[in-house]
Write a structure and sequence with these properties.
homodimer, alpha+beta, four-stranded antiparallel β-sheet, two-stranded antiparallel sheet, about 40% helix, disordered N terminus
Amino acid sequence: MYQQASRRSEKQKISTELLILTYGTLVAQLCEDCEKDEDINKELDKMGRNIGTRLVEDFLARSNVAQCRNFYETAEVIAKVAFKMYLGVTPRVTFWSQTGDDCSLFLEKNPLMGYVEIPEKRSCLLYSNMICGILKGALKMVCLQVDIQLLQDSAKDDKVTEIRMKLMRRHRVVRTVEKKQKYCVDS
Amino acid sequence: MYQQASRRSEKQKISTELLILTYGTLVAQLCEDCEKDEDINKELDKMGRNIGTRLVEDFLARSNVAQCRNFYETAEVIAKVAFKMYLGVTPRVTFWSQTGDDCSLFLEKNPLMGYVEIPEKRSCLLYSNMICGILKGALKMVCLQVDIQLLQDSAKDDKVTEIRMKLMRRHRVVRTVEKKQKYCVDS
C-alpha cells in the first residue's frame, strides 16, 4: 500500500488532535481484532517498525541533523528533534547506564493520550507501544539495532511515560561505489 | 476508549508525516479485516464520524470562528480553517448549486496520499473516505445534517480529490437554561 514519499520542500504543520484521534481509532480497531493485550502490543510494535522505516527518510531530509557520533547524541536527537517534529513534545533523556548504551526517555505528558481511557479489562495493553516500534524501525535504517520498551505508560496508573532504549548492536555502513547507496552489514 | 480532551492552551504543531503513515496503517488494517472495498469505505466513514464528533470540540475551542450564518460560510470555514488546521492544506470551494446547499471541496494535493499506492484489486476503495466521516460527525455536532461523499480520490486515477457536500437539514439549537448546554432538535 505504500510507496516512497516525494521530498517536500514545504514544511506543513498541523495540530496534533487528528493524529491523536486517528491513532486511538487504530488501537480501538486492534482491540476489536485481537483478544489478548499482548497480541495488540506486538501488532502496534510491528506497525510502528513499518512506519519508522519510512518516517526516517522524511526525518533525515527535513531535520538536517549531522551523523551522531555516539548513542548519547542519538538519544538527544530523538528527544529534541524527532519527538518535537512528529509529536510536538520533548521527552527528558535520563537514567543513563555507565556504559552509555541504555537510557530512558521520560514524557511528562504523552501526546497520544489526549482522549484515552483504557477499559479495565485491557490492563496489559501498552497503548503507546507504536512509538517503540517507530523508534526501532527508524534506528534500524541508520544501522542501529536498539531494544526499546515501554516501561511506564501514562494511559495506565503510571503518571509518566517511560521508554527504555538499549543499544544492542551498531552495524557497519558499507557504501557501494556503483550505486552510491548505503547498506548496513553486521560489524 | 475515549474521554473528553482537556482544553489545551498551547498550540502544538507537528509535521504531517506521522499522521499520514498512521492513517495508512489504519486503512491497511481494515484491508486485512474486510474483504469488500465497500465495507472498508463504510468503516472509514463510521470511524471518521466518531472522530469528527470529538474533533469539533477542539476546533471550536481553538479556531474562535463566529457562528456561520449560512452554508456558504460553513464551507469556507471548513476549507480555510479546519482543513488548514488538521491537514495543512486549503481546498478550493466550488461548484455551488443555485440553492446554495451543495458545493464541492477540491484538493489539488491530498495530504493523506503521501506514501500510498492502492493495490489493483482494491479498485473501489475510497482511501480518503474518513475525511467525509469526520466532516459529517463534526457538522452534526453543530446541528447540520450534511451528506458528504468522495466523488474523486487522488489515490486512484483521478488527479484531484473532490468532496461533495450537500446540506440536508439544519436543526434548531435549543439552549437549556439549567445546564447552559446546547441541544439539537429537529426544526
